[in-house]
Amino acid sequence: MPFLDSLAPAAVFLVPALPGAACLWLGGRSLLGFPASERHIAWCMRWVFTLALACALCAGISLYAQGIPGLVLRVGGWKLTQTLDFRFILQLDRLSLPFVLLSTSLCGVVAAFSERYLHRDSGYQRYFFLLCLFSLGYNLTIMAGSIEMLYASWELLGLSSAMLIGFFHERSGPVRNGIYAFVVYRFCDLGLILASALVFAHFHTGAFRAWLGQGYWPDCQTPLDPSSAGLIGFLLLLSAAGKAAQFPFSGWLPRAMEGPTPSTAVFYGALSVHAGAYLMLRGGSLLAVSPGLSMAVFALGVCTALYARLVGRVQTDVKCSLAYSSLGQVGLIFAEIGLGLRWLPVFHALGHASLRSVQFLKAPSTLHQIHEMHSTLEDYQPGGPGESSPALYDFSLEKGYLEVLQERLLLEPFHRLCSALRRLDDWVLRLLVGSKP
Amino acid sequence: MRIETLSTELAEALAWAAEFLPAQGPLTAFVHHNTLHAFQSLAFEEAVEQAAQLYGCNAYMPSQWYRAELARGRILPEDVVWCLEQQQVESRPLPPGVQAHELYMALLLHPVHRLAPEQLAWHLHETGSRWRFRSELSESVRACLIEDARLYRQRRIEQIVPELQSEFPEEWGQLKPADLPGEMDERLAAQLLWVVCRRATRQLRRPGKALVCRRHRDLLWAHGGPDIDALVNPQLSRWCAAFLDQGLSQSSMPGRQQGFYGAIRGLASKGLKPVWMSAFPALCARHEDAWESLRESLEQLEVAPADYGVYLRDTLLALKGWAGMFHQSQIRPDRLPFLEIPARLEDFCATRLLLERCALQAHRVPKEPPPTPKREAPSLAFHLYQVCQFLGQGAASVDAWSAQEVEQLFEALDSFSSARRRAILHRAYERRFKLKSCDALVGHKFAPAPEKARFQAVFCLDDREESTRRHLEELAPDCETFGTLGYFGVAMNYRAAHEGHARPLCPVAIRPTLEVNEIPLDAEAEKARKLMGMRRSLSNLSEGLDARSHTLTWGSVLMSALGVFGSIPGILQVLFPRRAGRVSRSIQERLRPRNTRLELSLKPEQMVDVVAELLTSIGLTRNFSPLVLILGHGSSSTNNPHEAAYDCGACGGGRGGPNARVFAQMANHPEVRARLPFSIPAGTVFVGAYHNTCDDEVEIYDESEVPASHRDLLSEVVRALGQARAYDALERCRRFESAPSHITPEMALAHVAGRAADLAQPRPELGHATNALAILARRARTRGLFLDRRAFLASYDPTQDGPEGKVLEALLESVLPVGAGINLEYYFSRIDNAGYGSGSKLPHNIASLLGVMEGYCSDLRTGLPWQMVEIHEPMRLFVVIESTPALLDKLLQRRPDLARWVTNRWIKVAALEPDSNRLFRWESGQWHEHEVSPQPLPHVEHSSHWFAQKRQHLDFVEVDRAIPG
Predict the structure, then answer these.
(1) Integer CA distances (angstroms), B222 to A173, B360, B438, in order
(2) CA A246 from chain center: how many Å?
(3) Chain A contact set for B247 (CB, 8 A)
(4) Running DSSP on this structure, what letter comes out for residue B361?
(5) Mean pLDDT calculated for residue range B345-362
(6) Are A276 and A240 in contact (CB under 8 A)?
């Protein structure tokens, strides 16, 4: 069908472009000092997400109707030097399509929820700006066809997440925790940067087709040899682990519960944490050639799942308890990927993201539900079977001592190093000046 | 011996300190109470000041808020003048030409910026305030200031040039005496005034705001050290939440039975600790007993035994939400929803102090607070410069003042502090509303119900039922309505047919004596049993699924298999709240046995007391109509942790429908009727009903029991009630910005139903947000008066009360604590929402099934969230009682506990004489007769004509339609 043929690329382009345009509109109005009214914002959000979802569906149907496994769209480029050619490639295939459908529909549901939930909040416009920024970043991450594009959108995702955690910036707690998450993200992004550098050094282009293999997911084979595939894969794994809050980068996840309920629901419960899983799925062809990498992904996933289960058991507030349950499932998804499964993790991720985000949205009604349950069931007692040993309990309550270890192994030595350097500096200065400063 | 006395001393100190903690219990049984209950023995003004100091909160709204209310006419200038006069500011010596009254009025009406040196530098350079007078000055004052400047120039011509050169180097740096402009203009006049103010204050020093350092943490912090609370609070919050948890976590804290201190000791020796806590295990191990440890900590911290109480209080307040919950769990374990936990405040305190000692170890805590900063020249000059403008004192006058006189002026300025100014403005704010209400009550003409009312309806006195009552009277002018506490005198433990547990339905102060079970009719017993079984298995299923979704294995199977489809109901609920709500309600209805009866464990003679007491108190002892409707109320909303706060306060945060039903059943009992001191005609039928104030649904109980002769009447009543609730919804919708302003009653009903079922709605209803008045009088006194849902309306007939006012006494005894509790909780949560209230609902996170935290690992937040109090006008409750001042005096003398509310001014009182239109306001210890404003009240046909398309608070108005005849 020629009509569908021409429609698909436009639809693919519009999926990230619509939230992007909304972002420009909201951000522009804020910058120029003409805040939009709640009614306008709500109206705009409804259209943006409905249309984006329609476009994603449309593109999917068109692919299916044409019987092709994917579509690659080059939307621009930036040729810096002869060897450094950044390509802006959008790619819709059997992996990105379900994720795009999930993200646009969940963002749409959350936008509909927030339009009433945030009514009369002073940060209404800022919230929706960040929501659109997040949606833009997420869609681009999912649809990126090259590693440089992936990196840019990955950053956008991290930035908007951190800002949403610190949404209530009149209190210090949310801001501090937002910064914490941002620092973890930045540290883990190191992996993606280094991976990009390696890929460019090897291939002079970052396009996935060049280094992850021709063909469409899941039937692509990487031209890389096992050791370099393993190296690049490990770097990607570092990034993915940070975004997915895998062990030992899990510290930011409970801290992300500072934002308004709907944003925590969709971002940290559902979409954001699955971006890491997506990245690992995308790099599936690397895993296929490098058994060591697969082992690592599997081990990391299992570790995280067990860790999350242990810590989640003792959480005494609804949102953190949900966050750790969510983490446990993401850990399992990682483990499935490590085992070489391809389709199961996709279904698992989709199902988990949608179900968990609904649970998050309903978190404030926990009291009501438990009360109902208590009144219906005579012998009902909320909570679990009982006590665990003090040592295990302390381990779980203190979140596996991650923060203590981080303080002892990273911050303290760093602090000591800095103090030592300062003393050295003083000493050198005294030598030069010849007197006590 | 000595140790024992010390222990009791310590226990007493702790008990004293605990009084200052928030008294809010678990959210599932929310009861409104006075936020500052610890200060209730003080006069109101003193109490709010002291509490503001202690809790670090605001005592009143900010000055600019009151000024905005002044600008929009909510407060009139005459109110401010009156309140200032009442305040009796002590007379002080002032510079010549300055009148005290003028000075204070200027300070009240205009913002005077008191800037810190850093702010001041910016302000002076960027805003041009040194060469311009304040824009709000009148022309005459301006002229006066300019004239004064001219005089000054004539007098001090030789001084002016160097001074201008030094103060305004950019403009006048090269100035020669001859260059001075001949005409005096505002710019030069302002500059000269500034120059003079600068000179007058050059040698002056005034004390600044003293830093209050009560704990070691404050001292360290004041000296630029780290905030140790930032270390201690998260750790302690985590432990408290784990210890008090009612079943949110799947694995509970080991050793909880030994109490908090014991459990923490058990954990302390295990695992890794952060660096600052490295001494904690050793400190913990020293004492097995919390009291011992507490005493040692206080000794180590060098707290004098005389200061124990204060020090413990301040220590507790550093994490007041959790500490308060410990205290509540200790004194009212019956209010904990699921589990009784051996919570003891001394355990909490001992642990907290151990943590503080750990955190303090790395630092040397100074003994003295840092010296109080002084306010110095430029800031003082700017202060004087602004004040002089408002006083019309120009350069020449200020120049003539001696240094001592300037000092006097500053003394006066400092004594008239911001807190004092706001107290006056607040009083003016309350006074305007009080006068308007008095005018309305006096101006409103007595409108008795018809002798033979078609039907009668008894509502809860709740302010939210005011509008329903009014609309019912408008739609059926031949009816009569009453108001009383919504538990209708039935203090019971009630168990519904579809529920497995009984819950108390009565005010919290009363322990229920009556057990009532709802049981399905015998004919349907089998069906009901099946339904109950189905309900149970559904609950089990959903509980099981929910719990399993947290586990790894089951969770992954569920997620992968059900996943996307499982989320569809939830998503539909978000997208189409009203329809989803309707579906889920109809399922609920189907799973509930429809025809039930009540099983009362009460003899008829005991019922007689309940029925007689209630009917006497509302004055319904004669002229019974054929049908008397008893309407209880409650509120249901989704996704709302504070749901219980919207329910009936008189039912202890429960739903009062069953109370109405039980009461009706008692009053219909033939044996009861036979024994009543007054007679109820055989043709009178009582019918119970339930009004949901959130979605405005009304449910009639036991319709089938109504005799056939009354069926037509009942359906007529139901029709009228159906319309009234639609109009009620309409009136409520005017307050919701998200409801369109052009809207029909039917659309309004749909809107409120959608709100109640909406997961995303933080304001399912606005609760008591508009409460301001309480009127204890015959309905005839208020019938046909539009009260804007602002009044608690209790029916009280003084003509049927004895000369001693026994009925009134009983009524006041029950109404005052409930009404004032609601009012003061809203009041303080509005005045300082971050401090006394619980902040915005949006980041709330349910913790331990007891309360809400803000986001991740914070203190437990008590008080009302911002979304509940947003539109509230913070005012003390104004109670109008239909009685004579003499009787009230007698009554208050007899009951000092009730009198304290009045004499300490926590509520305001007026007496409306029963047989005349005279009203007496109780002010500063005396009754003053109210002078009626000459303007008569406006009239409207329907109240909907008055409120249509208006969002703000509205004035009182007469509604002609509601007046019978």
Answers:
(1) 21, 14, 50
(2) 11
(3) 370, 381-383
(4) T
(5) 94
(6) yes
Instruction: Identify the band that residue B909 occupies on the pLDDT scale cut at 50, 70 and 90.
Output: very high
Lowest mean pLDDT segment, chosen from A274-283, B352-361, B585-594 = B585-594
**Which one, of A110, A93, A182, lies nearest residue A144 by Cα?**
A93
In angstroms, the CA B362 to CA B703 distance is 73
Indicate the residue of B253, B540, B549 with minimum beta-carbon distance to A393. Answer: B253
**C-alpha dihedral over B733, B736, B738, B744, to 10 degrees?**
10
Supply the ipTM of this predicted assembly. Answer: 0.93
Residue B25's nearest CA partner among B865, B863, B869, B867 is B863
Q: Does A114 touch chain B (CB under 8 A)?
A: yes
Q: Do A361 and B574 touch (CB under 8 A)?
A: yes
Q: Are B843 and A259 in contact, with CB atoms under 8 Å apart?
A: yes
The helix/strand/coil state of B20 is: coil
Q: Smallest Cβ distance to A352: which of B559, B640, B843?
A: B559
The burial class, CB within 10 Å (0-12 / 13-18 / 19+), for A286 is: buried
- DSSP type of residue B648: B
A353/A268: higher pLDDT: A353
Provide the token pair at B666. 């008692």
pTM of the model: 0.94
Structure tokens of B462? 């709740």
- The label of the residue with tokens 């919230």 reads A127
Residues of A with CB below 8 A from B761's CB? 116-117
Which residue shows structure tokens 């203090």? B491
Cα–Cα separations (whole angstroms), residue B545 to A2, A307, B542, B549, B557: 48, 22, 5, 6, 11
Q: What is the DSSP string of B894-958?
A: H-HHHHHHHHTTSSEEEEE-TTSS-EEEEETTEEEEPPPPSSPPPEESSHHHHHTT--S----EE
Q: What is the chain B residue with the closest CA to A38?
A: B738
Residue position matching structure tokens 């008189």: B650
- Identify all chain A residues contacting B339, using CB atoms and an 8 Å cutoff: 381
Question: What's the token pair of residue B126?
Answer: 């960027």
What sign does the dihedral A56-A61-A62-A63 (CA atoms) show? positive
Interface mutation vs chain A, best among B559, B572, B638, B871, most A CBs within 10 Å = B559
Distance, in Å, from the CA atom of B556 to the CA atom of B750, rounded to the nearest integer, reads 40
Question: Is A394–B844 a contact, with Cβ atoms under 8 angstroms apart?
Answer: no
Residue A25, number of CB atoms within 10 A of its CB: 17
User: CA–CA distance from B177 to each of B146, B172, B396 (Å)?
Assistant: 19, 11, 19
